[in-house]
Amino acid sequence: MKYKHFITVIVLLSLTALALMLTVDVRLVDQPGVRMALPPRLGAWTGRELRFCHNPDCLKEFTIDEVKKTDVCPACGKPLSTMSKPEYDQLPKDTEFIKAQYTNAAGASVMVSIVLTGRERESIHRPERCLVGQGNTILSSHVLAVPLAGRKPLRVMVLETSRPASQLLHRPAWDGYFAYWFVGQGRDTPYHLARMFWLGWDRIVHSVAHRWAYIAVAGHRDRNSRAYQDEMQSLVGLLQPAIVLQPQELARKS
Fold first, then answer.
1. Sign of torsion over alpha carbons 87, 91, 94, 95
2. Partners of residue 28 on adjacent β-strands
3. Can you give the residue ranges of every domain in the chain?
4. What is the secondary structure of 15-55 as a DSSP string?
5. Which of 89, 109, 106, 105 is nearest to 97 (CA)?
6. Which run of H or E residues covers position 220?
7. pLDDT in tens, 63-80
8. 137-146 and 96-103: which strand pairing?
9. CA nearest 214: which of 153, 135, 129?
10. Whole-Å CA distances, 110 to 33, 100, 179, 183
11. Any bridge partners for residue 99, and if so which?
């Protein structure tokens, strides 16, 4: 089995190298495979988009129903953004980003975000790197199949995380989960390497470079239970059809 993974990496590296050599004739496709809009409702969940202040003396975040103007911070009057300042500083400037907080009547809260690559196609990287950089410990990872009507189940990468309390940051201890997957035009995968493979494949075989989206769902979990998976599966099962463009929609937009 280890040799199979080794061969996969070699093939991937070879395709990437070829793609780099052939980028002169590659056509960049601006139309993504997702809608950059999170629905206000997903079943029993109500969503509120988030806005972030980049003023170093403020750095507050708000839901859109807490601000009169979605582009002006109500605390300091500076501009608001759809991404936090650390995210803005780290990502290419043509990256598109949207994030919302979803809550239900039981008081549960889940964060949902979509990151869409720009022309540089460098906006997406392994989420594990960011989570660890934010002070989280990744306890385990597994792929979960989410049933969807009319197609094969969606495979989602699920990370179980833990973060200690921090008095300096005024942050309590946190046991959480972080589920993510990648969406291209007509493709989805829970694996970063698979996304890179398809990116290279499209460049070499079809001479196109599509904009890929990285979708994440994160929430709290009981460290002694996996009951959170039912909650997450239900939400993802509603989210995926709501944001992914169908082939006929892509054909109309092309």
1. negative
2. 209
3. 2-34+110-253
4. HHHHHHHTGGGPEE----SB-S---SEETTEEEEEEEEE--
5. 89
6. strand 213-220
7. 998 987 778 999 999 999
8. unpaired
9. 129
10. 23, 8, 11, 20
11. 113
Rounded Cα distance, 212 and 194, in Å = 12
| Residue 73 in tokens | 């911070």
Amino acid letter for position 137: T
Report whether 233 contacts 168 (CB < 8 A).
no
Give the up-direction half-sphere exposure of residue 234: CA atoms within 13 A in the CB hemisphere: 12
What confidence score (pLDDT) does residue 2 get?
47
Q: What is the pLDDT of residue 55?
A: 96
Q: What is the pTM of this model?
A: 0.84
pLDDT in tens, 117-174: 887 656 787 788 888 877 888 999 999 999 999 899 999 999 999 988 776 666 778 8
Place of tokens 């859109």: 64
Q: How many helices (H) and strands (E) does the chain have?
A: 6, 13
Q: Is 82 helix (H, G, I), strand (E, B) or coil?
A: coil
Which residues have CB under 8 Å from 197's CB, separation 6+?
11, 12, 15
What ranges in 91-143 are assigned the alpha helix state H? 127-133
Distance (Å, rounded) from C-alpha 36 to C-alpha 243? Answer: 7
Bridge partners (DSSP) of residue 34 are: 244
- The pair of structure tokens assigned to 53 is 């202040």
Q: Are 172 and 165 in contact (CB under 8 A)?
A: yes
Average pLDDT of the chain? 85
Residues in the chain: 254
